[in-house]
Structure formats: structure tokens, C-alpha cells
């Protein structure tokens, strides 16, 4: 059936257009046409003047709606996380497992496989944040599960189990061998620098090895200092690196996000890094105001949704709406190599949209 979304504004991923409609058939966008050209056979959906935009994409989220997929992987907890994402405008997401046991990682792999087999929606693949991270920059990650200098054979066992499921891995490049990096790339895993104490020189070398992403800018990485530029300095300096940022005002001050945006331009994208209350698990997250902390008060995750992150960028940072939306759709799709089908409203792309009112409510 052909459907026409009309009587609204359309953010295509490039610009906002008016007096036009989006024509879809099934799950595919046919075209953007003028309202006067809507075919008579089309079913009409009235947008009532609101803004239609590409669905948002969250590449790092651990759970939602009271269930921590990252610690208790199951199909049901993926479903709960999906609905949390939907409530905040994200139709696609990457469930994330922080540094944990081999069993938990394997359970998460199986849960994603089962979720897909049962027709579950929205999951782009699994993001493993660890276990190959630097102890000094572990943040809230559990030290007993951190692994440095892993063998190629051990990593291969994990990748074989997670083939076509593990799509992203956050690691510290200084604690893994070149052979492990090459192996991950051979399996099509997007590698992101994070929880790393690498020097500027080590980070730049990692980029030359093909690591072109970084995880939650400023958090759990060597800082920019005037005599030691660190990972942050390398990110600012190298046009090949794209980095996520958590725009909740706790992980990074809003003014620093604004400064960073001026330097990074299209190389910074939004994630939620969201957790949910989990008082009894190994990762014990407690809601404190509008953020989550562990027992000792260490910041452990956000309470963001993607649309809230967009709204913060517009209202707190001063980023134009179109660019804030790109940071939550176009750029994450590009990082994962999915920008030929996700992140835009354009002919041939997937028909998955959000509708925003003037207050940027979803």
C-alpha cells in the first residue's frame, strides 16, 4: 500500500522542506513529492504541521524500562530496551554490554540472535564496551572482568560465537595487539577507542591502523593537556576520527560540548549511554536526580533518551535543530556504514520516522 505523509515539514537529513510529502510503500521511501502530486490511490497521514524526521539511532544503551539487558541479557529485556528507545525517538539501537564475564557476553549474543529470529525490531547489532580496556580508565567498569593483551585465539572464539551479531567494540588500543585489531576488522567489527589511557601518539597510531571511532568524548580517556594532548587531543586533531558524546550535562558540561562541536563539526554524534535502575546486580545503578551512579557515587550512566539529547543540544548548547538531528541520525548511521539506507528521508531509504512538535517532543 502506498502512503503519503503530508501537511507537515520534512527534515530530510540535509534540510527542512515544506509543502511536500513523503511517499512510502511498505518499509521503503518511494520519494519526496509536492502535495499537489499525491497519487489518488495513496493512503493519507496528516502530520498536522509537525516536523517529520528520520528515526534516531542510539549506538550505546545498556537497558531500559527497569531492565538491564547489559547484565541480564534476554529477548524480553531487548524488547524492554526497544520500547524505551522508541519512547525517545530511536527506532534503531545497539544494545551494549559493559565489561563483564564471558558467560554474559555469550548470553547477550544468543539473546540478539533469538530476538532477530523472533522478528524483533530495531536492533542493529551488539556493542561490547570492553573487556579489553585500560584499568586506569575503567570508570564504573568491573576490574575483575578486564582483560589486557588478549590472545588472538581467545578473541577469535568470541567473534566466532558472535559472528554477524557483534557489530561494535569499545577497547583501549594500547592494551591489545595489532593482530587482535586486524582480526576484529576482518570480522567487520567497528572498533571504537574508549576507556583508554593512550598517549596522543598511541591514539594517532591507532587511527592509522583503522580505528576511526571513539567512545563518549572526554569520559574515560586521557585528557587534553598542554604538554600531553592525550586521546582527546588526537580526536580533535585527526579528521578521520568520529566520536560519540553524552549530552546530559553530567558526562560533559554543555559549554564543552559547544566548544568541541566547533572543532569537530560532523565528527561528533550523540549516544544516550543510558542505563536503568539496577540495585542488586554487579553493575548497581542508582538514579540520582537525572543521572545514574554506583554505590560510591561514581557516574555510571545517563537517564537520557535520544530525543532528550537532541533537545539538550538545541536548548543548552545552541546547536541548530537540523544539525542536532543529524548528530542523532545521519552521523551514527555513517559510523556504522549504514548511511545508504538509514539516517535520512530519501528515495530508497527505510521508512522509519519520528514526528516532533514545536517543543521537540516525540
Describe the structure.
It is a single chain. With about 350 residues, the chain is α/β, with parallel strands linked by helices. Helices cover about 30% and strands about 25% of the residues. The chain has ten helices and 17 strands. The protein has an eight-stranded parallel sheet. Strands 1, 2, 3, 4, 5 and 17 form a six-stranded mixed sheet that branches. Strands 14-15-16 form a three-stranded antiparallel sheet, with no helix packed on it. Strand 7, helix 2 and strand 8 form a beta-alpha-beta unit. Helix 1 packs across helix 2 and helix 8 packs antiparallel against helix 9. The chain is globular, with a radius of gyration of 20 Å.
Distance between the termini: 25 Å
Count of helical segments? 10
**Shape by Cα distribution:** globular
- Biggest sheet, spatial arrangement of strands: 6-7-8-9-10-11-12-13
Beta-strand content: 15-25%
Q: What profile does the largest beta sheet have? A: 8 strands, parallel
Order of helices and strands: EEEEEEHEHEHEHEHEHEHEEEEHHHE
Record field, number of beta strands? 17
Q: Low-confidence runs (pLDDT<50, min 5 residues)? A: none
Mean pLDDT: 97
The computed structural class is alpha/beta
- The gyration radius over C-alpha positions equals 20 Å
Helix content: 25-40%
Indicate the topology.
Elements: E1 2-11, E2 16-25, E3 28-34, E4 43-46, E5 51-54, E6 56-61, H1 75-87, E7 90-98, H2 102-117, E8 126-129, H3 152-161, E9 166-171, H4 178-186, E10 190-193, H5 200-208, E11 213-214, H6 230-237, E12 242-246, H7 254-264, E13 268-271, E14 286-288, E15 291-293, E16 299-302, H8 306-317, H9 321-327, H10 330-335, E17 353-356
Parallel strand pairs: 1-4, 1-5, 6-7, 7-8, 8-9, 9-10, 10-11, 11-12, 12-13
Antiparallel strand pairs: 1-2, 2-3, 5-17, 14-15, 15-16
Helix pairs in contact: 1-2, 3-4, 5-6, 7-8, 8-9
